[in-house]
Amino acid sequence: xxxxxxxxxxxxxxxxxxxxxxxxxxxxxxxxxxxxxxxxxxxxxxxxxxxxxxxxxxxxxxxxxxxxxxxxxxxxxxxxxxxxxxxxxxxxxxxxxxxxxxxxxxxxxxxxxxxxxxxxxxxxxxxxxxxxxxxxxxxxxxxxxxxxxxxxxxxxxxxxxxxxxxxxxxxxxxxxxxxxxxxxxxxxxxxxxxxxxxxxxxxxxxxxxxxxxxxxxxxxxxxxxxxxxxxxxxxxxxxxxxxxxxxxxxxxxxxxxxxxxxxxxxxxxxxxxxxxxxxxxxxxxxxxxxxxxxxxxxxxxxxxxxxxx
Length: 309
Ligand code: CP
Known about the structure:
Elements: H1 17-35, E1 47-52, H2 58-69, E2 73-77, H3 91-98, E3 104-109, H4 114-121, E4 126-131, H5 137-151, E5 158-162, H6 169-178, E6 184-188, H7 197-205, E7 209-213, H8 216-221, E8 225-228, H9 239-245, H10 253-259, E9 264-266, H11 287-305
Parallel strand pairs: 1-2, 1-3, 3-4, 5-6, 5-8, 6-7, 8-9
């Protein structure tokens, strides 16, 4: 049995296959409890701190929903501007203070490595809700749970990751969990936004089957799962470069119906223009179910790191 008690959740690469299977099992249990409207009190007496120094809809609200559904309480802030970091307080000092109030910390911050820095300052487990263009491990776990839910199992699927693979933290953490399964990965990106070569090379060394292409339609034809991502405007130093690359890949209903109607379509959201809205009603359009799975996965993680399950 995997033991998560007291552990920080910082990086997609930290998990073993055994731990991933355990998270999937606990998330599935949480989903059943919620669907059957069973009141849970696992987190009664616990407080979650949600410290979001960067905008979020899904990650913050699903963490908060998860804690409420587990019977616990939540405190936090939704932007750096409403915390004392706006007065110059260091991240370490903010974390040391919040650590006096709460039992678990979920944090998002624009700086790569900030979650690890927070974990060093806190006694409480820190869960990384996204650190710049670095990692977003809870998204990777909910994506894994979604693939299992939509396809029946993770093993055996060909997963196409498309869009901004350079700056997209969801794909950086996603590949670190997919590598434990018998999946083929196809990376589709403009030349300027490919997966960082050091990540691709390391995964190949670890035996992961990877193809890289700029041709989305060819990749779709052999895919089971298509994971679209947004071009990460906020990470570009040169606005002209963003303007050049935005809209590089746009998935339409016609493309899905013509090329591969059985495709499971995922997106971490928010979307800008990567998927036209007429795709939303296709049976394989899983992105809103994917967002719902964020609650079950984060319920699992909160209960696991506190040792209450
Ligand atoms: N998927 C995701 O991280 O969404 P938010 O930015 O809304 O949290």
